[in-house]
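Deliverable D5.2: sample structural annotation.
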Amino acid sequence: MKLRDLLVGVNPTQSIRNAEVEITSLAYDSRQAGPGSFFFAIRGEKTDGNRFVFDAVERGARAIASELPRPWNPQWGVMYANELAHGIVAPKHVPDNVEWIQVADARKALAMVAATFYRRPAQALKLVGVTGTNGKTTTTYLIDSIVRAAGHEPGLFGTIAYRTPRSSRMATTTTPESLDLQGFLAEVRDAGGTHAVLEVSSHALAMDRVWGCPFAVAVFTNLTRDHLDFHKTFEDYFAAKRRLFEGTGCGAPAVGVVNTEDPYGPRLAALAARTLTYGLKNGADVTAKRFALSFSGLEFVAQTPAGKIEVRSRLVGRINVYNILAAIGAAIGLGIEREAIEAGIRQLESVPGRFERIDLGQPYLLVVDYAHTDEALRNLLATARELNASGRIITLFGCGGDRDRAKRPLMGEAAGRASDIVVLTSDNPRSEDPLRTINDAVVGLQKANAKYLVEPDRAVAIERALDQARPGDIVLLAGKGHETHQVLRDRTIDFDDREVARRILRQRGFGSQGHKA
């Protein structure tokens, strides 16, 4: 595709000298650049893509997009003086045959060019975006199941995996970078798909990963403290979520589905062309008057603008009543018939790592869950208490390293107030000392006067949590859920709470009588 065709709507700050350059690929990582590629120098949290433009050029890039003017000039010298001194950035010139395109916003430029490169796949699909602190993954899985039950072929993109009709791969971020996302959406379109359901994170919205994507439906689940290491203030965090409802360069969504029981929900209610509210309080458009909870699942009748919907679900807990109501609202926004909504909810048996039971015949309940914020822990513990009122609750959790420190004591307090015993351990420590994350959480546990044990080694900690369990108890392994790796300071190791727990249970003689493995 010619460079001039890719730049439609991008508005570079200067005229293009050779708009007829043939572009064969796009890249935002210089290691992915090759002959004929168009490299986007994006400034990230940890590094600046401008440092790698010469690497991209050496690999064959024919065009560079950057927020900086063409090197070398005084601005480059000031910005990279330290790198120059240490040889990290070499004082090179970009060859004249490489087009330098200065843009006001490199991220938006990447999103727009990627959409054009892949022939605007988002416009050929009905996109559903789900944002919020908690419940995004479960809600997207429900919507995906409903869309499938209606006879459509969707793509599904979120925390667990990126799935198209042709392939499925493990997710690296909750929402893919714009270039990758447009490629995935093109794969859905080219395989005959009609819909795409996305978890849209606050990071993705702040970084314009979904810029240029027209959403048919936007869903807001809730807003609680998280990611303040990135957003700095809670209002900034909300402002990022709000962008999904304001529109991502394509106008507001056709339908907004909003949890108005959340204090921030009403602030989103008038942004979409049409708004459907959901919740358990009177006045919501999609609601449930009463429901039955058990470890077998949920049953209730949803009252909706499309009529009554009979809900039978294998998902458990009050929090999933909200997730189901959100999914129903999204399905109504998509125009899906009531029968397909009921079938889709019924057909979803589980969501990986979300209140996932591990049953090898042990005399206590064992559940793995992704809860990694204080509010998510409170919801998890409330579900456990409601379903297992007579047994003790033993909760294992840790706090992620290199993330918001202020939420760690809040997590400790949430776990401590609702658990009989807490086992405090490591999560993904990353570059941070695990003992530091543990000490931060201990403050909250002590405030709650909790009974707790400390074990930094997560595998040993799981064993110690199971040591505490008596018949009738429930053990909650919280924080990592579906994750199959643990990120340490110097390496990433294979680690799956579910597999570790199963191994320990088998060592103790369980699992040999036909129980689930």
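Annotation notes: The first strand starts at residue 25 and ends at 27. The radius of gyration is 25 Å.
The annotation will be released with the project's public dataset once the embargo ends.
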